[in-house]
Amino acid sequence: MRFTGGENLTGFKRLVNDVFMKNELKNGEGAYEISHAKAGRSGYSFGPVQWDLLQNHEIKKNELYARDLFTDILTNSRDANNNLIFNNNATIQKILEEVSKTNGNISSHRLINRDP
């Protein structure tokens, strides 16, 4: 699923959006995936600018961090029928533990997958 958050931007904002689309998101295809850079001190990352979960990047100054947002996504995401995608707290906890490791063993996992 292609990320389309910047289609209405213009000027400099559009140029920055286009750079993120090409550099961070594989031409817009990576925003809804967890990916692992496997380089340096980076861990798993997600989102339109690939927020790093291991480093817990600050998203909104002193207010919102990558792990907080990711936890909220896991806890509140719903499918087309309004059912929770992850309706098992143990599954959410397992995912959070895995993405907090430096060398996890999930290479890429789409957030839209349902609980087994």
What keyword list fits this structure?
single chain; 116 residues; alpha+beta; 4-stranded antiparallel beta sheet; two-stranded antiparallel ribbon; 30% helix; disordered C terminus
Runs in which pLDDT lies below 50 for 5 or more consecutive residues are 103-116
What is the tally of beta strands? 6
Oligomer designation:
single chain
Gyration radius (Cα, Å) is 15 Å
> What is the CA-CA span between the terminal residues?
21 Å
**What structural class results from the helix and strand content?**
alpha+beta
Task: Write down the secondary-structure element order.
Answer: HEEEEEHHE
Which percent bin holds the helix content? Answer: 25-40%
Strand content: 5-15%
Mean residue pLDDT:
75
What spatial order of strands do you see in the largest sheet? 3-2-1-6
Instruction: Please report the number of helical segments.
Output: 3
Largest sheet: 4 strands, antiparallel
Shape: globular
